[in-house]
Amino acid sequence: MHVAVILCSFTSISDGNGEQTVLRGVQTSLLSMYIPSKPFTCLDGSLTVPFEFVNDDYCDCQDGSDEPGTSACSNGQFFCENKGYLGTLIPSHFVGDGICDCCDGSDEYETTIVCNNTCFELTQKFQAVRDARRTLHEAGIAKKKEIIAKSKAITSERQEHFNKLEQDLNNLENDLKEKEKLKQEAEVPEYAAKEKNQKLWEENRAMQQVMVRDQQIREIFVDLDTNEDSLVSIDELQKHTELDINQENEFTVEEVRSILGSDSVNFNEFNAIVFEKISNSYQSSPEPTTPTLEPTPLPEPSIYSATTPSSILEKHGYEEEEVTTTSSSYKDNEEENNNDRDDYHESSSVSTSLEHEKHIHASLAPEYDDETKVLIQIADQARNEYNQVKEKIIQIKRQIQDFKKQSDVDLGPNNDYAPILDECFDYDEREYTYRICMFKTAKQISKGGSSQVTIGYWDSWSGPKDDKYLKMKYSNGATCWNGPPRSLTVTLKCGTEQKLSDVREPSRCEYTMTFETPLACDETIANRSLHPGHVEF
Ligand code: MAN
Question: How far is it, in rounded angstroms, from Cα 352 to Cα 354?
Fold first, then answer.
């Protein structure tokens, strides 16, 4: 009985040089732990037993290591040699359970059931998968080389472009200094000419104000001097009851005399003593008499002479200021002025003077003289050229900034992924189209395009330590209802085309994509030789 047990503890395995008798169920790498001439120490070191206890169908070791070839231990492991295929480990309690678990049927050595050896079939299948994989990688590698060549060209083009941008920036900055100098040189005479114009205009305006005031005094004097004796007397002024400060009583002779300072005043006395006292309350006579004093024409201001035909000035008398200030650029003003003139015909001459004075205050600066216009044109041109260069500098700086930002993105080993930077790929499924724009964003677009949700922004490469470029992470997408921000993990897989081949949402708002690309193809796999009928395990 004991001899029988010992015999079924052993089996024959192939060691490449022929058959070898070894302990049943022990994987090749552990055979050195099972030496028939020595006591056996459980693999966990917990117990040492005589070697006869190994595979005696009684479980001695806690880790089940004394019964690799029987089902005595619930936690042991049986090694299927699977000759011609891959050796595999199965739980040792599968041994002798009437089910063929090993493709060589070695787990059912004790039973009467006959296991077909399926190892050859499995080998063929395995080989077919391996060959297909190898062929795919081989085809992918050819494309990968094209992409890498492209990425090298793109990278060096981008570098050249960057160098050019920096060179352009340098040139433009020098140009800007030059243009700034020219601008400043053009602005000095322009400023001086404008100042001169402004000063002249202000002087003219002041002069006109004095003359208008003088005209106004004359008009009031004439209006009051109803008997035209060149004197304004008490009875003439007394008619203007609006000048009575105390409006409750009548406008007495005494009150009038206190305004005039005497019984009557001539023009000079009126100008010196009376005008200031009455100018605010004075209202012209209801029916104005034709003024005897001719309106004194205002002098033609030198600043306007270049632009205004003198005939117009002569024709309009002291309206000339209105006409001349209304250069082509002040059209609206001109219309206002015309309205002023209409009023003039309906009201008295005094109000006309007041209007005129108001207008002088409100008038806009006239056009510049021709010489100044030319200087402004030259300075404008210099300013434009300066601003154009400045604008170009802003644009180039922006491009340089964008370039630097892009350069910070890790585009894979040797920048291999440069050709698909920003390129977008779509994947259609029943409810959504998923779109990934490489190294930027990933979106979930509802069919019909009515809404779209960002499921992540480019974050980093996130493959395992020894294969960092296997996966991409896109994070911080739109926040999930009552949950975290959406995020995406993209797994790269060897393929002959660049495309999304799968999208899933394995847990709520956490998405996965498979992106096929020749860049994920492995040269080692592609270079494995095909040996028909032989599998290298
Ligand atoms: C939308 C989609 C789904 C997601 C739910 C979460 O319907 O973005 O993918 O699971 O929102 O509420």
Answer: 5
Contact of 523 with 529, CB cutoff 8 Å: no
CA–CA dist 171, 103 (Å, integer): 76
Q: Is 320 helix (H, G, I), strand (E, B) or coil?
A: helix
Cβ of 480 less than 6 Å from ligand 1: yes
Residue that the structure tokens 């005494």 belong to: 254
Q: Would you state the pLDDT for residue 338? A: 41
Residue among 275, 263, 216 nearest 238 (CA): 263
Q: Tell me the C-alpha to C-alpha distance, in Å, between residue 310 and each of 233, 314, 331.
A: 41, 6, 19
Q: In which residue ranges of the chain is CATH 2.70.130.10 found?
A: 415-526
Contact 475, 482 (CB under 8 A): no
Class of domain 415-526: mainly beta
Q: What is the pLDDT of residues 156-208, one digit of tens each?
A: 999 999 999 999 999 999 999 999 999 999 999 999 999 999 999 999 999 99
Model pTM greater than 0.85?
A: no
Q: How far is the CA of 511 from the centre of ligand 1 (A)?
A: 10
Q: With a 6 A CB cut-off, is 445 part of the ligand 1 pocket?
A: no
What is the pairing mode between strands 452-461 and 19-23? Answer: unpaired
What the block records as the tokens of 136 is 């795919």
Cross-strand partners of 436: 425, 442
State if residue 507 touches ligand 1 by the CB under 6 angstroms criterion. no
Ligand 1 pocket check for 508: Cβ under 6 Å: yes
Residue type, 299: P
Q: Residue 54 corresponds to which amino acid? A: V
Query: Helix 370-407 vs helix 119-224: angle between axes, to the nearest 10 degrees?
Result: 160
Give the Å distance between the CA of 469 and the centre of ligand 1: 28
